[in-house]
Design brief:
Elements: H1 3-9, H2 11-21, H3 25-51, E1 53-55, E2 60-62, H4 66-97, H5 104-114, H6 116-121, H7 132-155, H8 162-188, H9 198-202
Antiparallel strand pairs: 1-2
Helix pairs in contact: 1-2, 2-7, 3-4, 3-5, 4-5, 4-8, 5-7, 7-8
Length: 208
């Protein structure tokens, strides 16, 4: 998790070290991405269980049961993992339109490391009055900064296509992470009632 701070404050050198290391898919997934997701989910879950969440629409703090917190964080962790994998696949396909012969591992490495500021900012969600969109906005701004160095180092596009691929990567991650944030924020802010949803009827103990 410390590497995300190096990516933010020393992006060029950190990306160069990442490229030289040539880590495989399993390493990046199991020893970097999943721990980041689990730590951010655990911290947020602890905050939700301890303090609840301020819901502006109802002008009240909502308390969450432990079972509800565990279920929500498990679903959110899966969504975050799917977001990274989907973003990586889309980025790979987009890079190929720029005549880039990159591999999936390069796109996955770019998104997993480049998008890690989103997971770091996710720690803010443990605060009871922090709006989920605030942490997402901070995270996406940091991600835009980190990817500026990451795209040319890892994806290695033709110099004439580098900025276009960078913009495409930003758009992809904004859309996929924004959709994930929308789904989770609606629940946290009380805009979705899972107590009367198909999901709760199918799994009656899930969000109780």
């Amino acid at each position: 998790m410390i590497k995300v701070f190096f990516l933010i404050f020393e992006p060029r050198g950190t990306w160069e070290r990442i490229v030289r290391a040539q880590r495989g898919f399993a390493f990046v997934l199991c020893l970097y991405l999943l721990p980041m997701i689990l730590v951010s989910s655990a911290v947020e879950g602890w905050g939700l269980a301890r303090w609840g969440k301020w819901q502006p629409h109802f002008q009240m703090f909502r308390d969450f049961s432990l079972n509800c917190v565990v279920s929500f964080e498990a679903v959110q962790a899966i969504l975050l993992l799917v977001m990274v994998l989907l973003s990586s696949l889309i980025l790979l396909r987009v890079s190929q339109t720029f005549h880039n012969r990159g591999r999936f591992i390069e796109a996955f490495t770019t998104v997993a490391y480049g998008g890690s500021p989103l997971l770091l900012a996710h720690l803010m969600d443990a605060g009871q009055t922090v709006n989920p969109w605030t942490s997402w906005t901070i995270g996406i701004l940091l991600t835009i900064w980190v990817l500026y160095q990451g795209i040319p180092h890892v994806m290695q596009p033709d110099p004439t296509h580098a900025f276009g691929l960078y913009l495409s990567a930003i758009i992809v991650i904004i859309l996929t992470s924004g959709m994930t944030r929308l789904l989770t924020a609606m629940f946290l802010l009380g805009q979705v009632d899972f107590h009367h949803s198909w999901l709760t009827r199918r799994f009656p103990d899930l969000f109780q």
